[in-house]
Amino acid sequence: MNILVVDDEELARKRIQSLLKEKSDYNICAEAENGAEALMMVERHQPDLILLDITMPVMDGLEVAKHLASMPNPPAVIFTTAYGEYALEAFSTKATGYLMKPIRQEQLLKSLEQARSLNRAQRSEMLDKTDSAIANRKHICARRRGNLELIPIEDVYYFQADQKYVTVRHKEGEVIIEESLKSLESDLSERFIRIHRNALVAKSRISGLSKSPIGRVKVTIDKIEDELEVSRRHVAEIRRFVRER
């Protein structure tokens, strides 16, 4: 079993190495010190399992689990943390296991053995059933020219759907992702508002409303020239939102 160890503390990573040093069934194929780097390492090394710290800079472990769920062949996940209050939220992601630091060898090996028994479909199902963990989502994960690109949510102007793909318009341009608009709306409902069946706009980016030559209501967006049409179904809600801000 190839294992990716993710922890922002070098001593914690070395401890796991020492616990598995003489266990030939388990190979540490790579390490990462934050969540963003972890996703890159998953792409590069295709590990069977991740020992994933929860509290890390850049991107925490709970958000990493959310992004892993969209991968075609996700690894199993065992969370590791020194903070017991994260246990309930971690298990809401349906992770394979949860280990409290300092990690004991007996617990680690037991969790690894349980994870070994899972097949690909079971790993995908576990990771896909996230709920409270997505509330703290801070990035959109996209692939461009074979590389993983992480886009901060705060940089996104809007999402626009076209068949099974969604265009993400952000500060640096735009990318296409395969997440559904429904999933994005569920994850980001506090920061984005639906204006059309095919569009979500960042609430903080809406600068006002305009009308097209044929009388259709459009949303104007701060700092860019794009204007997006508001469907008749959402006009009243969007007008109320703009008026009450």
Automatic annotation (TrEMBL):
It holds the Pfam family Response_reg. It comes from the Bacteria. Residues 140-244 form the HTH LytTR-type domain. Residues 2-116 form the Response regulatory domain. One of its GO terms (cellular component) is cytosol. This is DNA-binding response regulator. Keywords: DNA-binding, Phosphoprotein, Two-component regulatory system. The modification 4-aspartylphosphate is found at residue 53. InterPro entries: CheY-like_superfamily, LytTR_DNA-bd_dom, Sig_transdc_resp-reg_receiver, WalR-like. GO terms for molecular function: phosphorelay response regulator activity; transcription cis-regulatory region binding. It comes from Leucothrix arctica. One of its GO terms (biological process) is regulation of DNA-templated transcription.
